[in-house]
Amino acid sequence: MGGVGRPRFCPQWLELRERADAAARAPELLRPLRGWSPALDPDRTPDPDGLVIRDLGCGTGSMGRWLAVRLPGPQHWVLQDHDPVLLSRAAVRMPSTAADGRPVTAVVELGDLAALTAAALAGTSLVTASALLDLLTREELERVAEACTGARCPALFALSVTGRVELTPHDPLDAEIAAAFNAHQRRLDGGRRLLGPDAGPAAVEAFERRGATVVTQASPWRLGGPECALTEQWLRGWVGAARAQRPGLARAADAYLRRRLEACAAGELGVAVHHTDLLALPGPYGAEGGAGG
After folding, report:
1. What angle (nearest 5°) sits at the alpha carbon of residue 276, between those of residues 273 and 280?
2. What are phi and psi of 189, to 5 degrees?
3. Is the whole model's pTM more than 0.85, yes or no?
4. Does 285 have pLDDT greater than 90?
């Protein structure tokens, strides 16, 4: 991601959430991905030229750290983001070897999704992103889908929010806070109307309209217990966004946050933040040029 008006994320927040992200991502989607491309199949001889993987909105590189060790063969990652501070941390923390011990290399690229075209993806084996689609506009998502399908490049997008959050024990204000937060996710930001929880269905539609095969898998965060530090920061951000969207909620939201933080500190709060992972394979799955024969 990148450009004017795009959010910047604190590296400490990205590092705090990395373990929960890794636990939530859906490894089940790697199976159809490997079936589509022989180069991604650990039971076949790796392509000597290796894989070229472009990670959009890479942040500190957590998607690369999760995925590189699950794919075989030599890999070259292009880590793309609009934030040079995050990029400075990304490449140096990438794994050096793939699932089969082959080398993994990485370069960083300061760039904007506006430059993403089918031509720019020529020679790319896979496009990835994590927690990105809900930050895009519909036009930006269409551009990504057009570029990937035009280049016949599979795309794996992890952790798009669905708008559904479950907290235990229940609180009467849960639904109102959730609705205000979801409205904030769909806000107009710097002239850009964000997709928020609509990103997953919009991505399915955009890729399928271009002839891609799309497979989705639930990938919920499960917070609580040892994740108390993350749960606390998530709560503050979740309630804070709801409060910003609906200032009239301020007093009730502040009291709600206090109750929830107390329950978190006491180890009595459980949270499920629902996400969807999406794999888009260009063309019908199993067709010639698709599943690798």
Report:
1. 165
2. -125, 105
3. yes
4. no
User: Residue 284: pLDDT above 90?
Assistant: no
Buried b (16+ CB within 10 A) or exposed e, 259-269: ebbebbeeeeb
Q: How far is CA 181 from CA 21, 169, 185, 222, 245, in A?
A: 20, 19, 6, 19, 7
Query: What does the buried/exposed string (b/e) look like for 63-80 if buried means 16 or more CB atoms within 10 Å of the residue's CB?
Result: bbbbbbeebbbbbbbbbb
**Minimum mean pLDDT range among 44-53, 155-164, 165-174, 245-254:** 44-53
What whole-number distance in Å separates Cα of residue 224 and Cα of residue 242?
21
pLDDT tier, 248 (very low <50, low <70, confident <90, very high otherwise)? very high
Residue 49: is its pLDDT beyond 60? yes
The letter for the amino acid at 80 is Q
Mean per-residue pLDDT for 151-177?
97
Greatest Cα pair distance in the chain: 62
Residue 93 has pLDDT above 50, yes or no: yes
